[in-house]
Each structure stands twice: as C-alpha cells, then as structure tokens.
Amino acid sequence: MFDQRSKSPERSVDRPQLSQLTSPTDAALISPVKFAHDPVPKTPLYLDAKDAPFPRESFDSMHPLLKHGIKLYPRKARLPFRCSFNAANESRFWKQGLESSMELLKLLSEDQSANDVVVSGGVTMAGLARRELRPEVEHRFCKVSSYMFPYADEERTKLLAASMVIMFLWDGMTLLLLMVAAHSDVHYQTKQKRRQTIL
C-alpha cells in the first residue's frame, strides 16, 4: 500500500514506481515505503533538481563501511526528492535500528520514574513514549538514523536509533537546558577543584 499524501491540483503526480527504488539485488533488503511527503508541492524552477552524481573525489569508493549502505534512487521511483544528488542511502541494519528504538520507547512508556519527568505542556516522558508507540511507529522518526547514518555498523546503528528516540522525545529547549545545566555543572566542578588547589 502506498499513500501519496501531498497531491497538488496544479501538478500531476505520477504513480510511484517502487520497483525502481533500488537494484533488484537490494530490493528485499530495504525498508518498506508506505508514505511519501512532498515538502514543496508547487516546485519553483530553481528547485527543479537535475541528477548530479556524488563527487567521487570526496570519498573512498573502496571504504569497508560503504558495504553497510543500500543505494536508493527516489527520483527513478518517482518519489519526491528535492536534492541534486542522484541517489540517497539507507542502512542495511534499519530493522535492528527500528527494534532498538521501539525497545527504548517501550521501556520509557513502562518506567514509573519516566512519569515524573515532564517534557513539555504537562506531558511526561512516559506519556510521550506511549503516544509514539501508536500504530505505524515504524513509518515515523524511528527510521531516521538509518538514513542519516547509512554506513554505521549494526551496533552503532542501534545506538544511534536509541539516541534519536531521546532527541525526538525531548524538545529542543529541554535539550538546550540540559546541555547548559551539564556545562554549568562541569564549570562549577572545575572552579571547586581550582579552589581546593589554591587552599
């Protein structure tokens, strides 16, 4: 099933050809595509991207980590893709990353102490985790890390996926406050150590 959510009356959208998204050898390895969102349905001419191969000089094509990525061709599959590069990449370990994300969400949703952590608007960390566990969780932010870090190995993919859960559950302001608090604590401890040295 495929749901094309961004249909514009001023622009005819071709039916996606998902069989063209990757090579036949990798077709069984990629994560299912169920939704597509076009952030710019009325495309200005300057955003009408043309295929440009990724500069070969910028990376080592024989690097061993490249084997962890699967090459995707969204434009060939007629999916919205506002990028000049001709391809994107996905991690071969997207399933393991997804399982890591869902495991952390379940742990947070059941953790009693997470009910005491108010994230924003009176909603607790546990409440947010429960909300994110609603149906089709696999089609939301839980797979972000497999696209952002396609060349990570299995363990790193799982760690990155768990990190993304924390980043998405905690809003930016809360993260900023935590970072400031951590920095202030380190600064305070440094000052205390200096003071002890002087005394």
Structural summary, described in words:
The strands form three sheets. This protein has a two-stranded parallel ribbon with strand order 1-2. It has a two-stranded antiparallel ribbon with strand order 3-4. It contains five helices and six strands, in the order ββββαββαααα. A hairpin with a 2-residue loop joins β5 and β6 (123-124). The protein has helices at residues 94-110, 125-132, 144-148, 154-169, 172-198; strands spanning 3-4, 35-36, 69-72, 88-91, 118-120, 123-124. Helix content is 37%, strand content 9%. Mean pLDDT is 75; it is low at 1-12 and 186-191. The chain has 199 residues and is mainly α. The protein is globular, with a radius of gyration of 22 Å. α1 (94-110) packs across α2 and α1 (94-110) packs across α4 (154-169).
Write the layout of secondary structure elements.
Elements lengths: L2 E2 L30 E2 L32 E4 L15 E4 L2 H17 L7 E3 L2 E2 H8 L11 H5 L5 H16 L2 H27 L1
Parallel strand pairs: 1-2
Antiparallel strand pairs: 3-4, 5-6
Provide a brief overview of the structure.
37% of the residues lie in helices and 9% in strands. The chain has 199 residues and is mainly alpha-helical.
Radius of gyration: 22 Å
Question: Which ranges are low-confidence, i.e. pLDDT below 50, for 5 or more consecutive residues?
Answer: 1-12, 186-191
- Helix fraction bin: 25-40%
Tally of extended strands?
6
Strand count, sense and closure of the main sheet? 2 strands, parallel
Helix run count: 5
Strand order of the largest sheet: 1-2
The sequence of SSEs as H and E is EEEEHEEHHHH
Overall pLDDT score: 75
Structural class: mainly alpha
Percent strand: 5-15%
Beginning-to-end CA distance, first to last residue: 71 Å
Shape assignment: globular
